[in-house]
Amino acid sequence: MFFSEDFIHYIWKFRLFNRDNLQTTTGENLEVFSAGLPNSDSGPDFHNARIRVGDTTWAGNVEIHINSSDWHRHGHTNDNAYKNVILHVVYRDDEPIVLPDGRQLPTLELKERIPDDLYNRYHRLIYGTQQFIPCEGSIRSVDDMTLRNWLTRVLVERLEKRSATVTAALAKNKGDWEETFYQFLAAQFGFKTNALPFELLAKSLPQLTLAKHKNNPSQIEALIFGQAGFLEDEFQDEYPNKLKEEHNFLRKKYNLVPIEKHLWKFMRMRPQNFPTIRLAQFAALIVRSNHLFSKMIEIRDVTQLRELFTRLEINPYWDTHYRFDAESKASSKALGQSSIDILLLNTFALFLFCYGKHNQQEYFINRSLKLLEKLPAEQNNIVTNFDSVGISVNTAFDSQALLELKNSYCSHKKCLQCGVGNKILRTT
Ligand code: SF4
């Protein structure tokens, strides 16, 4: 047999071994009332188990190993954290464990008690030769309710992990949700490639400063392009020269320090996504509305949310330019619907969730999940592969959950900790 200790852990947790005439290795009758609670910290594998050995009922910890001699190999002999272990559960009893007080540690050997069909399913799952994910041949056999419940759970895990970065930023911004949202939204405008300079730009230019100029679009553009470091050059066109003049005045007034222009990347990028175009769109969004988070949180309808980002009034200079001083064929530089949906998905849905968690208001958490259900799925390799193994991916709820499932579970073969894996292993 070939398996990891996790498998024994799993068998004990769900008591999947043959429990007929259960005895310890010294021949005492054994009854398991409760397997205990798995412990993810250091120390014994399960806490608060309840068992009876012979005539004595015990409550305490359970330690799991493949071989009983692992007790010594793992250095538990004189470790106080293990002194309340009431049962040693092992695959093979290759050595009796005598405790410092002279007692023999009660041990349950599972070698002859693991059902063959369970082992065979486990082996196929973990040691098979699948291309995409270990359960690609059997995931479709899992019922929709199990799959949906599990996807909801991993999606919440994903949002909780991502919320940690929002919470850290929120603390730095002294609890200011608007400022924090503005910084995250800016980073999203940069896609992955220019997320960092966009974020640095937002941090160099507080939203409150922009709010003072909300009725003057050219000053907003000057502040944004200037702080992005794009107005340090000499220009021929009138538009950048005007912005430069404006920025020189405003940077002194507010004591602003622009970021370095070299941080921005244009390489291997469609001109439509050049940072200059994204900055022009961002400026138009700021002109249209400040205090965006407060505004968005009042809107429940996804169409109305999209409208906040639709038909932004981008300076007409950009109709015929992708960069300063370089004229090009006229084209629309409006934000496309898929870009708007990605902004809603990665920023607003995350903030709704985080806001709900922070304020312990389930209402916002549910709204976040509902918003993801209304947005379309992203297109990427992971989504395509899940689709090809028979999992339909219709909404951002599905795609985000599957992304988390693949990256945090399937890629690490954490099938024993997975709701889908559990179902596959236990379906006879
Ligand atoms: S972690 Fe779950 S979904 Fe992923 S391969 Fe294993 S059983 Fe399947």
Provide an overview of this structure.
By secondary structure, this protein is α/β, with parallel strands linked by helices. Helix 8 (217-227) packs across helix 9 (238-254) and helix 8 runs antiparallel to helix 10. It has helices spanning 5-13, 70-73, 116-127, 144-172, 177-189, 195-204, 207-211, 217-227, 238-254, 275-288, 292-297, 302-307, 337-358, 362-374, 381-388, 396-408, 419-426; strands at 30-34, 37-38, 46-53, 56-67, 85-92, 107-109, 321-323, 326-327. 47% of the residues lie in helices and 10% in strands. The two termini are 20 Å apart. Among the domains are: 5-114, no CATH class; 173-335, no CATH class. The strands form two sheets. Strands 1, 2, 3, 4, 5 and 6 form a six-stranded mixed beta sheet that branches. A two-stranded antiparallel sheet has the order 7-8. It is built from 17 helices and eight strands. Residues 133-135, 139, 405, 409-410, 414-415, 418, 420-421 line the site of iron/sulfur cluster.
